[in-house]
Amino acid sequence: MSSSIANSEASKTYPKQGSALCKNDFVMIKNRPCKIVEISVTKDEKHGHSKVHITALDIFTKKKLENLLSINDDNFVTLLDLKTNETKDNLCLPNGELGIQIKSAFEESGDQGIIVTVVAACNEEAILSWKKNASK
């Protein structure tokens, strides 16, 4: 086998119909290798088209970027998942300096919000970092 074929990125991936994917399969999402942790297939009754909703985690970083929408009085946050456009409100601000920085940055951001990095592993999720929201 020639080295150009062995190093070809195209030979490492192949297309697969979305409805044929299963939980624990590996897929490329936004040029990142991911493992499917949740998948649902729905059929649109009007036109008969299937829709596949995939939740997957990057196999190297386990990171998910989410937009911080609000912080309540108990330090629970409301996040907008930028991949699914769904909100979640079951995470608390981190303790210590990181939580203080996030709260301060969020208050200063106005209606732009900030981006937080959420890491998920072993059925736990935690906010590990933040950055300014440059997309708005």
UniProtKB/TrEMBL annotation:
<feature type="domain" description="Translation initiation factor 5A C-terminal">
    <location>
        <begin position="60"/>
        <end position="131"/>
    </location>
</feature>
<dbReference type="InterPro" id="IPR008991">
    <property type="entry name" value="Translation_prot_SH3-like_sf"/>
</dbReference>
<dbReference type="GO" id="GO:0043022">
    <property type="term" value="F:ribosome binding"/>
</dbReference>
<dbReference type="InterPro" id="IPR012340">
    <property type="entry name" value="NA-bd_OB-fold"/>
</dbReference>
<dbReference type="GO" id="GO:0003723">
    <property type="term" value="F:RNA binding"/>
</dbReference>
<dbReference type="InterPro" id="IPR014722">
    <property type="entry name" value="Rib_uL2_dom2"/>
</dbReference>
<dbReference type="InterPro" id="IPR020189">
    <property type="entry name" value="IF5A_C"/>
</dbReference>
<dbReference type="GO" id="GO:0045905">
    <property type="term" value="P:positive regulation of translational termination"/>
</dbReference>
<dbReference type="InterPro" id="IPR048670">
    <property type="entry name" value="IF5A-like_N"/>
</dbReference>
<protein>
    <submittedName>
        <fullName>Translation elongation factor IF5A C-terminal domain-containing protein</fullName>
    </submittedName>
</protein>
<dbReference type="Pfam" id="PF21485">
    <property type="entry name" value="IF5A-like_N"/>
</dbReference>
<dbReference type="InterPro" id="IPR001884">
    <property type="entry name" value="IF5A-like"/>
</dbReference>
<dbReference type="GO" id="GO:0003746">
    <property type="term" value="F:translation elongation factor activity"/>
</dbReference>
<dbReference type="GO" id="GO:0045901">
    <property type="term" value="P:positive regulation of translational elongation"/>
</dbReference>
